[in-house]
Amino acid sequence: MEVGAAGFERHLPLLRARIRRAAFLAFDMEFTGLHSSCPENNEPSLFDSPVERYLKARQSVQRFTVTQLGMWCIHTTFISFPQHWALWMLNSPSLHLAFSSCLIMALTIISDLDRDVLKKAIDEVTCWIAAAEEDDTMVLQDLSGYQMFEVQLVLRQALQNVWTQPLGDKKVMVKKVSLRHRQLLENSLYDCCQKELILLSARGFTNLFQTLVKAKKPLVGHNMLMDLMHLHDKFYKPLPESYEDFKRNIHILFPVLIDTKTVTKSIWKKCPFPRVSSLLEVYEVLCSSNLNPTDPASPVITLASDCSRYAEKKSPHEAGYDAFLCGSVLLKSAHLLLCRSTDDAVEADPSFSQYLTVLAEYLNEVNFIRGGVSSINFSGEDASCQHLPLLVVHVKGRPGLNERQIYQEFNAFCRFDVRRLSKNQFLLLSNKFKDIRRVLREYKDHPHLRVSFYRRWKHSPSVNCLLQANAVIKPTYEQERTISTVSGSKRCHSQYRSSC
Q: What is the pTM for the complete model shown?
């Protein structure tokens, strides 16, 4: 089911009911951008701690918006899943939502468009009403779903002698009426532009977000950190400055999170599971006949008739399709882990509670892409950061090199993240031992770049500064001691002569 602006309010009760009945909810979001280029060096780095990554991502989330949101409601019967629906949306900071299946536009463009449409409508009505007689009408055209509500609300507040009524097909009728007639119309039960309906439309997906929060169903995503940050920022509250506050808020909103990236990374180690990267590749591997080919209890996933195009054509990075993939990957991964956890045959139609049992170690562990930890723990403290050995590059004879130039130098044959250590020293960090070995070998005799393992006692600027300070302090202390000794000797000698 694809839900647009025109039918959102009509479908809202059904969508709420499906969320309440669901065993868990799989979702995916698409954004207008991922990593902001302002400030510089805002992209993920292996050097990042969870706090550093959050602060980087927070700046990006505040600059971009959500263009698509797909959700899959999974019910307790795992034989077929007809309850698949997708929401496609454009969002603005004031939570005025417009839905479209094809339009992707930046927030500022949408806001300017709404203002221009509103100004044009007011100008047309103001010019018309001066010469109009009572019961005369005019029609405003080419209004989107939310614009139809907004134009009516503004005209009714600004002009006491008009009444408005939507005609459908992006049109609104404006009628000149008497004050008495206006009062009667305002009290009508059939006014489709009542304030409650306007607010319902203005809140858009926020209505459904509140249902998600109240339902407290397990929320499933794939590499879902950015999705969670956008959910918080666009539909709950602006992202807090504190990383710990963000974690705490998300855990209160969604007590059970499952990241299929975290789950499948573990399956690589426990099962004969090919190492693939994208969500679609993971789904295809789990659906292949090589994994439990004769297992009669394996989940069989059937698409609803209105989503049959997903069976006929792959649509990666389409939010609804990725939500379907995410839910499917979770079910098949959980079933695979359940089969590996017991020597007995798994009963037909396993319950979701059985799946949650084998998934227990992954709950609330959200994958941390290319950073100092493997995952973020939303229900406790994060693990301490761990890295492969650091390399340090000492530059000779090439002054003025920056991090980008060092990165390009080594990126020619392997992937390293770079961070400046001092004026002529840079740190290199990789997640592959083979790249470390190769760099040490290739740059062994380089005339300008000397590469070696980083040693804190040798290369750390703070340690070097401390050693230099000690070196300065120590001679001063010795000098004072010598002076004190000499002075003491002189005094003793003088006293000795006096006593004689």
A: 0.69
